């Protein structure tokens, strides 16, 4: 168990809808990262938060947004969903802003299916 | 931006043989290079990492080498076992403005044949 908790495990919704994915980092970790993994694809970096502030951004669509709350949990909001948004969404956490001394630990992911 | 290329995309070896997976990165400022193992339907798990101030690191049957000049790093698995079958991802970390951005390679599906 990595200590990173993601909910829900599975999510099935229709095109055009909006969903929220939730992540609780490991105890003591200040950084939260979101990654998207499509079927048989690599891990695409979406966004990183550190202690409530956005610190790095990847190829995150404008329809997607995220935030990190004072208790350090994070939410990824996906709106106007399209079939192509179906993927496994991973949250990861680390202790510091830089991973140089603090590897990322991944949660078990949320599998999103858009029908 | 940073780009990480990983080869091969699939690799099949006989049990007991060695497996080597190679990655190249584009940003010379990258200074942290982890490797993750992902079993089917599970989360990626860190198996080994190397920082730019060392050239090689070993952990039992797993080793990673780094060539900063060539911007190339490799994962070596010796005496492979069936439980080594998984998808392996390399990654490189850049630190823009004090933040962190870990960019992953496309993955290598390793199959160990008994």
What's this, in brief?
Chain A has 115 residues and is mainly β. Chain A is 0% helix and 50% strand.
Could you walk me through the main structural features you see in this protein, from its secondary elements to its overall organization?
The complex is a heterodimer of chains A (115) and B (114). Chain A is an all-beta fold. Chain A has strands spanning 5-7, 10-13, 19-24, 31-37, 44-50, 53-57, 64-68, 74-78, 87-94, 105-106, 110-114. In chain A, strands 2, 4, 5, 6, 9, 10 and 11 form a seven-stranded mixed beta sheet that branches. A four-stranded antiparallel beta sheet of chain A has the order 1-3-8-7, with no helix packed on it. The N and C termini of chain A lie far apart (31 Å). Chain B is an all-beta fold. Chain B is 0% helix and 57% strand. Chain B contains no helices and eleven strands. Chain B has strands at 4-7, 10-14, 19-25, 32-38, 45-51, 56-59, 62-67, 72-77, 86-94, 101-104, 108-113. In chain B, strands 2, 4, 5, 9, 10 and 11 form a six-stranded mixed beta sheet that branches. Chain B has a five-stranded antiparallel beta sheet with strand order 1-3-8-7-6, with no helix packed on it. In chain B, a hairpin with a 4-residue loop joins β7 (62-67) and β8 (72-77). Chain B is globular, with a radius of gyration of 14 Å. Chain B starts with a strand and ends with a strand. The mean pLDDT of chain B is 91.
Overall average residue pLDDT of chain A: 92
Strand content of chain B: over 45%
Main sheet: strands, sense, barrel of chain A: 7 strands, mixed
Biggest interface, CB < 8 A: A-B, 28 and 25 residues
SSE blueprint:
The complex is a heterodimer of chains A (115) and B (114).
Chain A: E1 5-7, E2 10-13, E3 19-24, E4 31-37, E5 44-50, E6 53-57, E7 64-68, E8 74-78, E9 87-94, E10 105-106, E11 110-114
Parallel strand pairs in A: 2-11
Antiparallel strand pairs in A: 1-3, 3-8, 4-5, 4-9, 5-6, 7-8, 9-10, 9-11
Chain B: E1 4-7, E2 10-14, E3 19-25, E4 32-38, E5 45-51, E6 56-59, E7 62-67, E8 72-77, E9 86-94, E10 101-104, E11 108-113
């Amino acid at each position: 168990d990595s200590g990173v908790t993601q909910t829900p495990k599975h999510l099935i919704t229709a095109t055009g809808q909006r969903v929220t994915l939730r992540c609780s980092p490991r105890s003591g970790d200040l950084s939260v990262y979101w990654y998207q993994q499509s079927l048989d694809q690599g891990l695409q970096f979406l966004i990183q938060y550190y202690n409530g502030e956005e610190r790095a951004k990847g190829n995150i669509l404008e329809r997607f947004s995220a935030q990190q709350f004072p208790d350090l949990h994070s939410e990824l909001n996906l709106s106007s969903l399209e079939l192509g948004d179906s993927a496994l969404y991973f949250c990861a956490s680390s202790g510091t802003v830089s991973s140089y001394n603090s590897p990322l630990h991944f949660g078990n992911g949320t599998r999103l299916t858009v029908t | 931006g940073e780009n990480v290329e990983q080869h091969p995309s699939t690799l099949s070896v006989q049990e007991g043989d060695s497996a080597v997976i190679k990655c190249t990165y584009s940003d010379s400022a990258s200074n942290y290079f982890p490797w993750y193992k992902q079993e089917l339907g599970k989360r990626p798990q860190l198996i080994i990492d190397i920082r730019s101030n060392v050239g090689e690191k070993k952990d039992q049957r797993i080793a990673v080498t780094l060539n900063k000049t060539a911007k190339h790093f490799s994962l070596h698995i010796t005496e492979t076992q069936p439980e080594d079958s998984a998808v392996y991802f390399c990654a490189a970390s850049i630190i823009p403005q004090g933040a962190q951005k870990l960019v992953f390679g496309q993955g290598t599906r390793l199959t160990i044949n008994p």
